[in-house]
Each structure stands twice: as C-alpha cells, then as structure tokens.
C-alpha cells in the first residue's frame, strides 16, 4: 500500500502490474506492493490455465468430436463446423470491449489528458528532438518488458513451488482493486463529463453492488453472461488506464514488443509460458478462471477435473475443456478449442455440443483495446483510423483462430492482430486520412 | 446540426445496410466472417489508392493550383480501378476457400458463390460507406451552421443519400461481378468497372446535387434489376415473393445453387 500511496496516481503502479495481472487478474492488484508476487502468481496462473488447456487438449482430443465414441474422422468436420462459431464467439466480446473503450475515450476527456506516467515508463517524451524521444520510448519499453519478463518468471517459480494461496490472494486483491477503485474513478469521471450529480450514499450502493457481484461472478459462481460482462468491463478499465498513463510513442513500441514477447514466450521451447504450460499439464490442474474469458456455452458442475487443491476461485467456465490460453498481456494466448470433458466423467447430462467454447486471455482483450483506444485518442478526431484498426484486429484474430484450428495447440493471440493493427494505424493515419479528407472536402466519392 | 440531423442522416445512410446485415448475415457466423474479410479487402484497396495518390503528390512536390485537382481526379479513378482489382482478388480467394471447404467436408453445404458475392458486395459497401461518411456524421453532432459560406444547406442529407446509394451499388456490383467471373463473361466485369467510374465521375460535378444524385440512383436501380436477374430471380419469383405465396423464393432461404 505504501507504494501505491507514494505514487502520483494510483494507476501508476497498477498499470504495469495490471498489465501483467490483467491477463491473469484484474489490475487492481497492481497497485499493491504484493502485486509483484501476485503478478507472477497470476502469470503463473495464466500459464497454468494454458497448461491445463493443453493437457485437456491431449486428453480431450479423442473426444474432440464432442461425442464420445465418435470416430476421429469426424473431428475435423466438427472443428470446422464449430470454427466459425468460435470466431464469432470471440469477435463479440472483443468488439464490445473495444466499443466501451472507444466510447469512453471519445466522450470522457479524463482518459486523454496527460497526468503523469507510470513508474514503469520513467523516461519522459517531452523532449525537443525526435531522436531523444525515440530513445526514451525504447528505454521505457525495455524497462516495461523486463518487468513483465521478471514477473512471468517469478510466477513460474511460484507455480512450481505450489504457492496457490499466494496466487489466489493476489488474484482476489487485484479484482478487488479493479472492481471497486477503478470503477469508482471511472464512474466519477463519467458523471463529471455529463454533469450529473450523485450523492455519496447512492454512489456507495452502486459501487458496492457492482463490485460485490463482480467478485462473486468472477471468483466463484455466477451466470456465464454476467461473468463475461464483468471480464469485459475489467479489461476495458485496464485498457483505459494504460491508454491514459502510457506516453504516445512508448505505447506503440510497447505494443510491438509485447507481441514479439508473446510469440517468443509461447512458441519457444524454453519460453516461460511454455514451461508453465508444461508444468500445469504434468500436474493436470485447472486454470484460474479469473484470468481468462471463456465463451463456453454450457457447463456442468459435476466436472471430473475439479481440483480441490486449487482454492476457491472455480468459476463456471472452469471447465477444463476449451480453455484458451491467453495470458494477460504479453503472455501468449493460447486460443484453443477444446472439447468438453471426458466422457467418462460423471456428467451424463452434458450437452457436449454446447460445451465447445473458446477461451481468450484477458491480456489480449486489454492490448487490443489499448491499440484501438490509442488510435481513437490520438487520431485527431478521425474515426477512419479507429475503424481501420478495429477491422485489422478482427482479421488478425480470425487468422489466429484459423491457425489454431490447423495446429491445435496453444498459440499467441497477440502477434498477428497487433501487427495488422499497427500497420493499419500508421498507414491509415498518414496515407488514407489526407486522401479521405481531401475527397470529403470536395464531396467526391470513390 | 442537431441530434435529429445526426440520427436522421445516420439511418438514411446505414439503415438499409444494417437491415440487410441483421436479417441476412448476423445469424450465420461464416457470413459474418466473410463480410469482415470483404471489408478488409476494401480497406487494403483504399490503402493502395492512398499510397498512389500520396506518391503522385510527392512527385509533383505538393504544388498548389489546378494540378492538385487533376491529381485528385486521377487518384479517384485509380482508386476505382484498384477497388475492382481487389474485388477480383477476393473472388479468387473465395473460390479457393470454397474448394478447400468442399474438399474437407463434402457433406456440409458450403455457402454458394452467389451468397458469397452478396456478402462480399455488402462488406465492400459497408466499409466504403462508413469511411466516406462517418467523419461527416460525427461533425454533424457538433456546433455549426451548414452552408454559411454559400454552400448548399443540404450537405448532410446529400452525403447521406450518396452514401446509401454507394452501399447498395457495391452490393449489386458484387453480385454482377462474381457472376461474370463465374461464367467467364468478362463484359459484365467491364460494365461494373465502367459504371463505378461513371458514378465516381458524376460526383465531380458536385455543385449540382440534383443531377449527380438522381443519375446515381437511376444507375443503382438499373444495376439492382440486373443483379436480381443475375442472382436467379425472375418476374415470376418476384410476384410470388410480393404476394407471399412461396417462401422458398425469399433470398435468405436460398440454398446453394
């Protein structure tokens, strides 16, 4: 808490952590000193979830077709048949998150005002020369990425030594901070923007209800739709914090570096995330639901893979199947399509067809939204840039899911989308915008 | 410039496209994906057109004067060419994807080329309309007086109707274009390209709103009738549809042909 108080803004510390945490858990954790550990724990948890997914993948591959006993030949057909549905199941939440972020950026001026920087990006960008600014942003990125890598490794270590209580506590603290503190700030700014007065008792009641229901839905049980909505909200809140506190050039360089890190960490044999996944697979443990967005449609309580050792936070979609590994940011996301739990498990009432779902890490949500939000914030009131980035990210997600269907293993969800997003942001901002503006001023249509 | 103008123009320009999306595309995930890929192809074509215009401008060193106007006209015409080229490329991609899907699971009915033509046309149209109009729309929410410097006060309405006609035209062009590619009728492609050039060229005489808007709508109706017959409609099916006598003739019930 001391760290938190000492910083300029509460988000400062949170940002960094949050980003790491976000993938795993809501950012609020960041603000705390214990965040460090938490983040690592979270990262570990994330990886764990990814691991579990991979475990499940192997285990469930044989039941891929969703119906026990079906010949494997149908596996491909069902994969394809469900492939498009899975893509849409991810398009919708990603789109919603981006809409929330863009709507807030365009209307609430608080999130586009420069009000200090995170301690993870100490170098300022207010330098007179371009070279100095570029150097500062690269240094900021290096610091941020090294913190992320350190936390990831710490998380792997935590996970290896089975510090589950620590990880859970961290996750819960993070969600608390996100759901209560950040929501309170967000609500305050929105009310200020629209000049609506709200008395403290009403505010307390609103925030308390929102936060308490959120904690229950995310960490325990709740309707799937509500849980998804809360995860989208906290991803949006986290992304807004990043948009506010990351300086311009640093944000773009960080986005690029994070996708590279994601790629490396997920696919390299010695990558931390991959090691985490393998460890989780060995232990056959489930993933923390608080860090992953799950689109599983139906789930049953009597899942065979419930792990009593992993505390509390078993959520609904804690179904071992279909977990998409995605880590919060930087972590590779493993969008994976898993099949429902093994047929042998006591879920006679399982509707296997409905069990298919896809999971995407909250970190991916956050970074997609950061990219689109930054495009909206800096694009001089231009909507074309925002829309171009939005379409580019969706196409990247589509391609990633296609690769997932082809390779059937954990894949990072950030690289392709972020690359497309960055390419389209810079080209639209510099090439397309002047062309469209000139056309519009002469009222020409192409 | 009030909320009424904003909502009115937004619904004029995007209402039909939204209705088409909700009733024919939103229910099928595969169609949504092809729509977004179509929008992406249009976006890439716009990128190349802007690149061309940018390079042409840097070559002429950004001098002011009539040369800028000529460059702009050239940019518009080249952009139309590039858009149609990308439509052709999207056709090729869809053809390959269709074959791929068919080879993997021959039992499943993959979307027919006609349906993909419609979806791709709509994707192109929505992206084109949105890029053309959304900045104007967002400006209409702010303060200002339209036409205070002597321009027409119907600026927003005109832009909205123009956007609507462009979206619909893209849908019809998509259908005609893909059909021409399928049946190797290259004249159809040429007609699509020429009408697209004509519609863009008509906007050059934007001082006469009535003329270019009305003629564009006439072209749209003609293209619509041609696309209807190309897509397999006939006077009989139209009669059945209007009299609600045979629901198999409704568009979204069509299976692959």
Keywords:
heterodimer; A: 446 residues; mainly alpha; three-stranded antiparallel β-sheet; 14 helices; 3 strands; 65% helix; globular; B: 257 residues
What does this structure look like?
With 446 residues, chain A is mainly α. Chain A has a domain at 75-293 and 358-440. Helices cover 65% and strands 2% of the residues of chain A. Chain A has 14 helices and three strands. Chain A has a three-stranded antiparallel β-sheet, with helices on both faces. The longest helix of chain A is centred in the first third of the chain and has 35 residues, at 73-107. With 257 residues, chain B is mainly α. Chain B has one domain. In chain B, 76% of the residues lie in helices and 0% in strands. Chain B contains eight helices and no strands. Chain B has helices at 3-25, 29-59, 66-104, 113-140, 155-182, 186-202, 209-230, 235-242. Chain A binds chain B through residues 76-77, 80-81, 84-85, 87-88, 91, 381-384, 387-388, 391-392, 394-395, 398, 424, 427-428, 431-432, 434-440, 442-446, and chain B through 28-30, 32-33, 36-37, 39-40, 43, 46-47, 49-51, 53-54, 72, 75-76, 79-80, 83, 101, 104-105, 107-108, 127-128, 130-132, 134-136, 138, 155, 158-159, 162, 166, 199-200, 203-204, 206.
């Amino acid at each position: 808490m001391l760290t938190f108080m000492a910083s300029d803004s509460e988000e400062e510390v949170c940002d960094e952590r949050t980003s790491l945490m976000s993938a795993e858990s809501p950012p609020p954790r960041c603000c705390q000193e214990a965040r460090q550990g938490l983040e690592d724990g979270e990262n570990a948890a994330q990886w764990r979830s990814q691991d579990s997914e991979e475990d499940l993948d192997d285990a469930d591959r044989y039941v891929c077709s969703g119906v026990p006993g079906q010949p494997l030949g149908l596996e491909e057909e069902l994969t394809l048949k469900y492939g498009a549905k899975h893509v849409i199941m991810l398009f919708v939440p990603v789109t919603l998150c981006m809409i929330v972020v863009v709507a807030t950026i365009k209307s609430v001026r608080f999130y586009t005002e420069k009000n200090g920087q995170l301690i993870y990006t100490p170098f300022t960008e207010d330098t007179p020369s371009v070279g100095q600014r570029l150097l500062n942003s690269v240094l900021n990125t290096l610091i941020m990425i090294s913190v992320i890598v350190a936390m990831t490794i710490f998380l792997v270590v935590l996970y290896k030594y089975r510090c589950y209580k620590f990880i859970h506590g961290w996750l819960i603290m993070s969600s608390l901070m996100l759901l209560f503190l950040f929501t309170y700030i967000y609500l305050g700014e929105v009310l200020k923007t629209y000049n609506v007065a709200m008395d403290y008792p009403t505010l307390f009641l609103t925030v308390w209800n929102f936060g308490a229901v959120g904690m229950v839905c995310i960490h325990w049980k709740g309707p799937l739709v509500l849980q998804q909505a809360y995860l989208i909200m906290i991803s949006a809140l986290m992304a807004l914090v990043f948009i506010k506190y990351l300086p311009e050039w640093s944000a773009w360089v960080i986005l690029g570096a994070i996708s590279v890190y994601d790629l490396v960490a997920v696919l390299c044999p010695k990558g931390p995330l991959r090691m985490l996944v393998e460890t989780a697979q060995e232990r056959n443990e489930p993933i923390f639901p608080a860090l992953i967005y799950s689109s599983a449609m139906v789930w049953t309580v009597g899942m065979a893979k419930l792990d009593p050792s992993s505390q509390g936070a078993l959520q609904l979609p804690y179904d071992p199947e279909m977990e998409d590994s995605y880590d919060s940011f930087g972590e590779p996301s493993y969008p994976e399509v898993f099949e429902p739990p093994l047929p042998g498990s006591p879920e006679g009432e399982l509707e296997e067809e409905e069990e298919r779902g896809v999971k995407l890490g909250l970190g991916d949500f956050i970074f997609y939204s950061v990219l689109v939000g930054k495009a909206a914030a800096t694009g001089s009131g231009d909507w074309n840039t925002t829309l171009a980035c939005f379409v580019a990210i969706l196409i990247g997600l589509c391609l990633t899911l296609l690769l997932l269907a082809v390779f059937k293993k954990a894949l990072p969800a950030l690289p392709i989308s972020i690359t497309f997003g960055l390419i389209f942001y810079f080209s639209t901002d510099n090439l397309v915008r002047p062309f469209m503006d000139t056309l519009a001023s002469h009222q020409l249509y192409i | 410039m009030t909320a009424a103008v904003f909502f009115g123009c937004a619904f004029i320009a995007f209402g039909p496209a939204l209705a088409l999306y909700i009733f024919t595309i939103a229910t099928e995930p595969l169609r949504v994906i092809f729509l977004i890929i179509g929008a992406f192809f249009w976006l890439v074509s716009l990128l190349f057109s802007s690149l061309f215009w940018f390079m042409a401008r840097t070559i002429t060193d950004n001098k002011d004067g009539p040369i800028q106007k000529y460059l702009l006209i050239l940019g518009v015409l080249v952009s139309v060419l590039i858009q149609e080229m990308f439509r052709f490329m999207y056709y090729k991609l869809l053809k390959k994807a269709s074959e791929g899907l068919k080879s993997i699971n021959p039992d499943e009915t993959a979307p027919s080329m006609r349906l993909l033509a419609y979806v791709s046309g709509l994707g192109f149209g929505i992206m084109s309309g949105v890029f053309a109009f959304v900045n104007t729309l967002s400006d209409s929410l702010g303060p200002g007086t339209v036409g205070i410097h002597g321009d027409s006060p119907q600026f927003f309405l005109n832009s909205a109707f123009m956007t609507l006609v462009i979206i619909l035209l893209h849908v019809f062009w998509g259908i005609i274009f893909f059909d021409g590619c399928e049946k190797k009728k290259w004249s159809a492609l040429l007609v699509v390209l020429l009408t697209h050039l004509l519609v863009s060229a008509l906007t050059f005489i934007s001082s006469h709103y009535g003329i270019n808007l009305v003629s564009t709508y006439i072209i749209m109706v003609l293209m619509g009738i041609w696309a209807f017959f190309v897509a397999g409609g006939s006077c009989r099916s139209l009669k059945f549809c209007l009299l609600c006598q045979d629901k198999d003739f409704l568009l979204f019930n069509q299976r692959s042909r």
